[in-house]
Amino acid sequence: MTAKQSRGLGSVSEIAASVRSGEVSARSVLDKALQRVGELEGDLHCFNEVTTEKATADADAVDRMVASGADPGPLAGVPIALKDNLCTEGIPTTCSSRILAGWRPPYDATAVARLRIAGAVLVGKTNLDEFAMGSSTENSAFGPTRNPWDPTCVPGGSSGGSAAAVASGMVPLAFGTDTGGSIRQPASLCGVVGVKPTYGVVSRYGLIAFASSLDQIGPFAATVADAALGLEVVAGHDPMDSTSLDRPAPSILASLGDGVSGLRVGIVEDFLSDVSPECSAAVAAAGEALAAGGAKVEHVAIPEVLLGLPAYYVIAPAEASSNLSRYDGVRYGLRVDGPDVETMNARTRGEGFGAEVKRRIMIGTYALSAGYYDAYYGQAQKARTLLIRAFETAYRTFDVLLTPTTPSVAFPFGSKVDDPIEMYLCDLCSIPSNLAGHPAVTVPFALSPEGLPVGVQVLAPALGEALMMRVAASLEQAAPPGARGPVTP
Amino acid sequence: MSAGGTPGAGGTLSDEGTVTAYETVVGLEVHCELATTTKLFCGCRNAFGQEPNTNVCPVCLGLPGSLPVVNRRAVELALRIGTALNCRAQRSIFHRKNYFYPDMPKDYQISQYDEPINIDGWLELPDGSRVGIERAHMEEDTGKTTHVGGGGRIHEAGHSLVDYNRAGVPLVEIVSRPDIRSASQARAYVTELRSILVATGASDGRMEEGSLRVDANVSIRPAGSLEYGTRCEVKNLNSLRSLQRAIDYEVARQTALLETGERVAQETRHWNEAGGTTHALRSKEEANDYRYFPEPDLVPLVPDAELLAAAAAGVGSMPAERRRLLEQLVSGDSKAPIPARGDSSTDQVVTVVDLGLDELVAGAVAAGADPRLALARTANEAAASPEAARSLDRLAFAALLKMESSGQLSATQSKEVLAELIARGGDPAQIAARLGYEQMDAVALEAIVDDVIAANPEEWERFRDGDEKVAQFLLGQVMRATKGKANGKTVAALFAARRDA
Question: What is the DSSP track for B362-409?
Answer without folding.
Answer: HHHHHTT--HHHHHHHHHHTGGGSHHHHHTS-HHHHHHHHHHHHTTSS
